[in-house]
Every structure is written in structure tokens, then in C-alpha cells.
Design a protein that fits this description.
The structure is a homodimer of 186-residue chains.
Chain A (H helix, E strand, L loop, with lengths): L2 H16 L6 H8 L3 H8 L2 H23 L6 H18 L1 H8 L9 H28 L6 H18 L6 H14 L4
Helix pairs in contact in A: 1-2, 1-4, 1-6, 3-4, 4-5, 4-7, 5-6, 5-7, 5-9, 7-8, 8-9
Chain A binds a DNA duplex (30 and 30 nucleotides) through helix 3.
Chain lengths: 186, 186
Amino acid sequence: MENKEKLLNAALSLFDEKGYQGVGIQEICNAVGVSKPTMYHYFGSKLGLLDSIFKTNLTEDIKYLEREASYNGDFVNSIQKLTFALSECTSKNPVLYHLLFSYILSSKKNEDSEVAQKYLNKIYEITLNLFIKSKEQNGNMNNRESQFTYSYLAVVVDYLNRHGMDENKEQGLYGLLHQFQFGINS
Amino acid sequence: MENKEKLLNAALSLFDEKGYQGVGIQEICNAVGVSKPTMYHYFGSKLGLLDSIFKTNLTEDIKYLEREASYNGDFVNSIQKLTFALSECTSKNPVLYHLLFSYILSSKKNEDSEVAQKYLNKIYEITLNLFIKSKEQNGNMNNRESQFTYSYLAVVVDYLNRHGMDENKEQGLYGLLHQFQFGINS
DNA sequence: AAAACAATATACCAGTCGGTATATTACTTG
DNA sequence: CAAGTAATATACCGACTGGTATATTGTTTT
């Protein structure tokens, strides 16, 4: 593995463990065994490093999620596909999604927050789009698609974050989706 | 207002805006117009300052939430009381709860995260207790109280965080609770 | 072969970090 | 009135911050 990839991996782990602001560039470089100018050569700045972490890891995932979340006429089936696609992504790269999702409730005015929100918004839009498309054909959501999107993501993200790489994740997800559709009284 | 309270208020605003790690002690003291030894005289350390912020603001709130969330034989009524109690607390001190809730998905190994988790756990326990007590008398939760607690808090916290001081917050909360009980298909 | 370039290191920059030693003032307690 | 204490400021500490000027090496392009 080349220094560029080593830096991306070490920075991801450290950012997730201690937070973006809690990690120094020197610390990242020490973990890899290179000097600071090497990091600046590849990424330009600390913020550029964070953005590269998200870009290199998420670009394909977002395309995949877009494909899986396209409404196919069956809302339950579509939301299931999106949910398991999200689950698969987090299983493949749990640390990345743990870092990304940690920014959901922050909304700080830090530069790192703004970078993360950029990618979080894409996931939000993909989900919202599914609810909107579904409404166009079923028309029973009473303009609550936005709230449904927030609730859905809040529950699913919380679950995925808590069950990182568990084996039985899928079983719990079926329960979660059932609960989302029919409530806890069933 | 005395310097101690000024420091607590300034630190709360700055921590929420930029994150604990993103704010220096000097910055907080400048905002108040005192010197660093004054801050250290009252709080001992930066972490002590954060803990004081939570302790002074949350101690009474937690007692209030405990009272409101005590199961009274009617689960729907109990969960409503807890929900509106949470809503009232966040309305009274939106910045504090915005800061506190921002730690939910983080679970970093930072010292500030550990302090925040201490208080978040109390809210979690209050909520879980309501679900458990409710089960003892209704017995229809199939050991899913823990998951219900997480889902409930995820949805409600997300909502409260997003609607900070909105006037029509209560109306949306009724919808949210209905959705939690009966799902989105109703 | 010469010039350009990519990748790297050493050594440095001013600024800030959390925290403290010391001194001063004012108030309280004996 | 004397001693202690609470509250504050100035000035400092070593360590670290993000970032860079400069130099060196090896490869690629002309």
C-alpha cells in the first residue's frame, strides 16, 4: 500500500477515534511513518485530507445507494432495498460510516462539519426521493415525506451505528422496518 | 450575573458552536472578559468546565424527567408525558440540549465524550425504565424494550434537535408519537 | 543528456494549546 | 487589628498547532 492510501486509512481511524479537531497532522504522519510535507503533497490541507477520505470511500457507495433506492412501484420493497444497501455499506466500512454519521446531530459551524454535511445530504436526498416518488403513486403521506425521511434515517442510522459489524444485523433490520411501518403495537 | 455564570454561558455557546475541542480556554475567557486563572479558580480544568455546564443545567431536568416518565399504568399516557417533558426541557435550554445530543452518535474516546455520555445515559435509563415497567404489566414487547428505547430516543431527539425553539413543536410531536405507535401506514 | 516533475525529508515559522507560579486586592473570620 | 481566604490579573511554561521554505532524490519527458 502506498503512502497516500496509508495516510487515508490512518487519518480515518484517528478522526473516528478522537474527532477531527482532536487529531494533529503530526500524529497522523507518525502513525504512517512519513513526514508532514508528504501529507501536504497529496491532500493540500488537513481539510483536504478529510474530504478525500469521504470522497474516495463514498463516491461508489452513493451511486449504489441511488440505484437501490429507486422506487420500483412497491414502497415496502424499495425501502427494504435501501435499508439493506445501507447495511451492506456500513458493514464493508464501519469506521467510515461511524465517522460520517457522527456529524448528523452536530451541525457545528466547523469546516469539518461542513464537509461531512455535504455527503450526508446526498444520503438524505436519496432517501427523501424514495418517499416522494412513493407518494406520487400512493398519495397518502400528507406532505410528511420530509419528517418520514428524518425519522427513518434517525432510526436506521442509530441502529447501524450501534451494531457496527454484528452478524445478525439483518434480522434486527427486518424488525426495525416492520416497526417503522406498523409501529411498536404489533 | 457573576463571572462564574458568565463563563458557563459563554462556554456553552462556544462549545455548541465549534465543538469542545475547537474552543480554547483563552477564547472563552476573552468572550467574558476575565483571565484564565479566574476560570481555573472556579472549574479546575477545561473538562471541569464542561462537566459543570451539564451538571448545573441538567440536574433538575433529570429529576423532572424521572418524575414525568414514571409508569402510571397507561403506556401511551406515560410516553406522552415523557415526550412533552423532553420537549419542554429543550425549549428552555435549546443550546444545552443541542450540545448534549450531539454526543449521541459520536462515542469517541475523548474525555469530553465520556462526560457527555454520563448524562446521556441517565436520559436513556429513564426512557428504558418506562418501557420495562410498561412491559411488566403488559408483557408484549418480546424483550425488545432496549431497541424500542433506542428508536424512540433517536426519533424524538432528532426531531427536537431539528425544531429547536419552533412554536408548533407540540403538534409535530403528536404526529411523531402516533407514528411510533402505529407506523407510517396510518 | 537536459529539463521537468513527483515524492520525500529536515528544519523551521508564528500562533495557540491547557495549565500555573506569583502577586494583588478585597472581604471575612478569629 | 491580624490572619486567612476568595477572586482576580500579569506573565510565563513547554508542548503542540497547521503549514511552509528549502533541499534531495529518483523518475519521466523532451
